[in-house]
């Protein structure tokens, strides 16, 4: 089995350092290209979105609106090929309390039409929140089986500001893990620091304001 020079060199370097690594199946060939060839590679239009939804009491209403949200997302960006995954935590019972994958039509990734059925399998707790937190769920999302070559997006929905529990992965380490996997991470939630004019902020620090709201340029 032939592999490109870059992959072969990287694997050999790992093995020299005592770390055994295997070649990925998708690295066995590059279509009709031979080793040593140079060519232009078009960007992929594959987009995988993993939704992290707490099964806490305050999220019940938000979760019901998720199918409409992802449908509109796909409709607006119809030039891309979307797949959706679902991770949840904080729900009722031992299984739903800890971070876990909720399959979408029996798969890790499914179509937009399957999101509604996956949401129906969530078991929301009777209390606002419990001891579990989203940091473990985010860490699980970094190990998700995304499609090869896809743009990877993880979207956390929360009604509370998340705080790392003692003994869990630190924010710095979790951030490095997201960067290492080339994952775009965004949060939709209520934050005290955001006033009524501000409705959100993306991972690049760009702030989103309500429509027709004058922006104070002095800030």
UniProtKB/TrEMBL annotation:
Domain VWFA: 48-189
Protein name: VWFA domain-containing protein
SUPFAM superfamilies found in the cross-reference section: vWA-like
Source species, domain of life: Eukaryota
Lineage, uppermost ranks: Eukaryota, Metazoa, Cnidaria, Anthozoa, Hexacorallia
């Amino acid at each position: 089995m032939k592999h490109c020079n870059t992959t072969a060199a990287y694997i050999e370097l790992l093995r020299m350092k005592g770390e055994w690594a295997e070649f990925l199946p998708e690295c066995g060939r590059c279509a009709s290209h031979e080793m040593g060839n140079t060519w232009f590679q078009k960007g992929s239009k594959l987009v995988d979105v993993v939704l992290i939804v707490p099964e806490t009491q305050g999220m019940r209403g938000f979760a019901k609106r998720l199918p409409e949200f992802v449908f509109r997302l796909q409709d607006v960006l119809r030039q891309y090929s979307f797949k959706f995954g679902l991770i949840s935590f904080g729900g009722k019972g031992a299984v739903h309390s800890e971070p876990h994958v909720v399959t979408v039509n029996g798969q890790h990734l499914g179509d937009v039409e399957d999101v509604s059925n996956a949401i129906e399998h969530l078991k929301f707790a009777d209390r606002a929140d419990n001891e579990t937190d989203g940091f473990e769920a985010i860490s699980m999302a970094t190990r998700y089986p995304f499609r090869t070559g896809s743009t990877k997006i993880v979207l956390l929905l929360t009604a509370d500001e998340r705080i790392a529990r003692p003994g869990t992965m630190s924010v710095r380490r979790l951030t490095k893990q997201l960067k290492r996997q080339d994952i775009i991470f965004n949060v939709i939630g209520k934050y005290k620091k955001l006033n009524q004019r501000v409705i959100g902020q993306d991972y690049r620090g760009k702030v989103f304001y309500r429509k027709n709201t004058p922006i104070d340029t002095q800030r």
